[in-house]
């Protein structure tokens, strides 16, 4: 089932399946990638309580065994509509016997989308409804059409940052998804922009800007259309596109990153983890603006 929210300038369509963004339109332009099994069938999944992968899909959270595939359980578990307004919708997912077989903790996850003007605010609200503390990371995975017009190509686009990037990027292994923390790549250094090229993603996976100082990234083409991501609450940004010359760019704000080679199997000790105590709530936001 899908739900539409609107502002004067734009509209968004959200799906109950995964509480996921399905469409983002302004001036008859579809900004969101519509999925293609040839490259990547998804669109904008929500990653929780892990981002990326665990080694062999397994780890331990405060001694409890967790078995989760890539990007966790939220995206593959049922949601319900908690509240619907003309320009906003909130979905809710509560832990169940099924989720606890993978992540043995009680939680409540609300995902709220609010469309104001040309900007969609994504808010994640996580509450510990159990009697034990648990660790988690959360992140968005929205992919955007690139190019956005028939007059452009993928290579006509750049990603601009609001600060100069001075640190080389990390990249997960294409096959395992794991990150070698000792191996960095000179995809961008001492510059505030990076040119989009399919070759960036053919031999290597996503670019991980870990502990990024910039809190705003703009994907924009020569015709002046694009997407701006603002992620004050997130410490990391990933830029990714699929192999085979896929016509999309994913801009992914995450609170943590995928499992790194120097980390053990204790999930609570991994980079970027938030530990939530019983009855405690945490929230994280990021914004998508259509240009």
How is this structure best summarized?
This protein is mostly beta strands and 291 residues long. It contains two helices and 23 strands.
Report on this model:
This protein is mainly β. The protein contains two helices and 23 strands. 3% of the residues lie in helices and 42% in strands. The longest helix has 6 residues. The chain starts with a strand and ends with a strand. The model has no long low-confidence stretch (mean pLDDT 96).
Strand and helix order: EEEEEEEEEHEEEEEEEHEEEEEEE
Could you describe the largest sheet, including whether it forms a barrel? 9 strands, antiparallel
Low-confidence stretches: none
Mean pLDDT: 96
Helix content: under 10%
Number of helices, counting only DSSP H or I runs of 4 residues or more: 2
Instruction: Output the radius of gyration.
Output: 18 Å
Q: By helix and strand content, what is the structural category?
A: mainly beta
Distance between the termini: 28 Å
Strand content: 35-45%
The counted number of beta strands is: 23
For the largest beta sheet, what order do the strands appear in spatially? 8-9-10-11-23-19-18-15-16
From the spread of the alpha carbons, the general shape counts as: globular
Topology:
Layout: E1 2-6, E2 10-15, E3 20-26, E4 29-30, E5 46-47, E6 58-61, E7 64-67, E8 80-85, E9 88-94, H1 97-102, E10 107-116, E11 119-128, E12 134-136, E13 139-140, E14 143-145, E15 158-165, E16 191-195, H2 199-202, E17 207-209, E18 216-220, E19 226-230, E20 236-240, E21 248-254, E22 274-276, E23 281-290
Antiparallel strand pairs: 1-2, 2-3, 3-4, 5-13, 6-7, 8-9, 9-10, 10-11, 11-23, 12-22, 14-21, 15-16, 15-18, 17-20, 18-19, 19-23, 20-21
